[in-house]
Amino acid sequence: MEIFDREWCNIYLWTVNGSALFYIERDRTYWATCFEVLSEFWWAHLVPAKHALAGNKRELAETYRCTSFSHTMFLWVQLTGGGLNFGHHAYG
């Protein structure tokens, strides 16, 4: 929704045991927090590890592996209640 600038979307989920339709409203606060967490992870772990691997420094790349929650990730978990919220749903 953020990428396409939409205020809501429907997600249809099908499994062999049934299906469900989820109506999801845009949550700008949630996305801003997600963006902050993802950005922190990208710049603190992925980019440095990629550069280390490009320089054939595998041991250095391993030092960028995540070993614990960051402060921002902790705040994100607190904001989301520890999981994802799919809003209103209708089972079909």
The radius of gyration is 18 Å
- What is the spatial order of strands in the main beta sheet? 1-2-3
What's the number of helices? Answer: 3
Mean pLDDT figure: 82
Strand portion, in percent? 15-25%
Series of secondary-structure elements, N-terminal to C-terminal: EEHHHE
Tally of discrete structural domains: 1
Any low-confidence stretches, pLDDT <50, length ≥5?
A: 84-92
**What global shape is seen?**
elongated
Sheet of most strands? 3 strands, antiparallel
Based on helices, strands and strand pairing, what is the structural class? Answer: alpha+beta
> Separation of termini?
23 Å
Helix fraction? 40-55%
| Quantity of strands, as a count | 3
